[in-house]
Amino acid sequence: MKKLEYIKEAVIARNPNDSEFLQAVEEVLDSLELVVEKRPELLKTGVIERIVEPERQIMFRVPWVDDNGIIQVNRGFRVQFNSAIGPYKGGLRFHPSVNLSIIKFLGFEQTFKNALTTLPMGGGKGGCDFDPKGKSDGEIMRFCQSFMMELSKHIGQFTDVPAGDIGVGAREIGYLFGQYKKIKNEYTGVLTGKGLDWGGSLARKEATGYGLCYLMDAMLKDHNLSFEGKTTVISGSGNVAIYACQKATELGAKVVAMSDSGGYIYDENGIDLALIKELKEVKRARISEYVNTVPTASYTEGCGNIWNVACDIALPCATQNELDETGAKTLVNNGCLALGEGANMPCTPKAIEVLQSNKVLYAPGKASNAGGVATSGLEMTQNSIRLSWTFEEVDAKLKEIMVTIYHDISQTAKEFGVEDNFVIGANIAGFLKVANAMIDQGV
Ligand code: NDP
Q1: What angle, 0 to 180 degrees and rounded to 10, lies between the N-to-C axes of helices 391-415 and 204-222?
Q2: Which end is more exposed in the chain, N or C (fewer Cβ atoms within 10 Å of the end residue's Cβ)?
Q3: How far is the CA of 177 from the centre of ligand 1 (A)?
Q4: Residue with the nearest Cα to atom 30 of ligand 1?
Q5: Are 229 and 252 in contact (CB under 8 A)?
Q6: Which of 395, 399, 401 is nearest to 203 (CA)?
Q7: pLDDT of the residue at 1
């Protein structure tokens, strides 16, 4: 009989429609069964009941005027999940699919991820159901200004420090920061992912993708493997995917497929990353245009089918639940050796089961994509000491953090008798740090 079933039931009763949030909580609670077996006294502290309930959830109206003079209304969110080990920290997502369940699941995961980085950051997440696709720069700016009008009441360098996520890159962070400065009349490190001329950190843009590869590299080496010569498939073609592709290639992999929400490209000669950057970072174009320049490559409609491309290493870097049981079975049948999550919760629970039962090395996002927030933490440090480190300095710190995370989750998995189960390792290692801080601080 599971000891934490009553907590699961209470969370389901309180959040009946929040499927993504429930998915994330259930996975963590399952891992924590092993902890309460060893430390039953934890149950008396109520720390598990407290950790699954956000400290604060904010929802707000975001009205803005489009280029035709028509008033549009969106819904904004900020979930301040846990501040036991530092100010709330986590990105903002602008995507039409955004709702409270998605923001809550992201904030919950962020709490453990931030703990794993060893930096003093609590967990939070925010966003809006606004769709940046096809909007003019003026529309994006007016939307960001309206969004910050309300968000500014709830954030601050010592309270809550947002960053980017899907649909929020350097341009959006610029407009958000400019508006915050006007409202508050203060210049502080209230956001991360800032421009390099105005408080940003070198290597922040690269950090999540690079960090993913640093952690995977450590994991592969620990199992006498490496990226060298490995055929690799990366879903997505946004910030995380692009820099994962760059670092994986540098480490000797051959990346043969990438995608966007429309479909995927396959290039047996290895992806031309300069072209992807031109299409995605400069032109904001569709990935299908890749084949106009590289006629030997092919484009297939439907992004979910990217997992049909045979590979040794898979790096899902697009969005939640993008890889299901069927995709995982295909990867296994094609001889996939390792999978590292660049996105948050890209694998469904069934997919994870298939991967783990077939001994595919599987790195969960809360560990493997922690490089972005870790470097955001380094950006906060540089803002505080009013100094900028070089690219090499930040990159070296990032690498050290990612390798440390790998050893931490691997060691924890061993201690709890589940060697190479990095899901349990990450959940327990992240949980213990936050839970111990919460217990120290009282109810
Ligand atoms: P971007 O907006 O830069 O890129 C997102 C990519 O994923 C695009 O290629 C996009 O395609 C694709 N995508 C988005 N939504 C869907 C969908 N519903 N179905 C299929 N494809 C989709 O975002 P990021 O690269 O920043 O983020 C990607 C993932 O990584 C997210 O899960 C995010 O939470 C996670 N993450 C990001 C971090 C960061 O530092 N940026 C840090 C840690 C995790 P299209 O352009 O067609 O929409």
Answers
A1: 40
A2: N
A3: 21
A4: 343
A5: yes
A6: 395
A7: 73
| CATH number for the segment(s) 207-359 | 3.40.50.720
DSSP count for the chain of H helices, then E strands: 17, 12
pLDDT number for residue 407: 98
| Ranges of the chain with pLDDT below 50 | none
Q: Which CATH architecture has domain 5-186?
A: 3-Layer(aba) Sandwich (3.40)
Q: Which residues of 143-165 are buried (b: 16+ CB within 10 A; e: fewer)?
A: bbbbbbbebbebbeeeebbbbbb
SS3 content of the chain, % helix, strand, coil (to 5): 50, 15, 35
Global pTM exceeds 0.70 = yes
Domain ranges of the chain: 5-186, 207-359
Report the candidate in 232, 240, 164 with the shortest Cα–Cα distance to residue 207: 240
User: Which residues does 207 contact at the CB level (< 8 Å), separation at least 6?
Assistant: 243, 371, 372, 374, 375, 376, 394, 398
Q: Which two tokens stand for residue 348?
A: 């469904």
Q: Which residues are catalytic?
A: 125
Q: Do the domains 207-359 and 5-186 match in fold?
A: yes
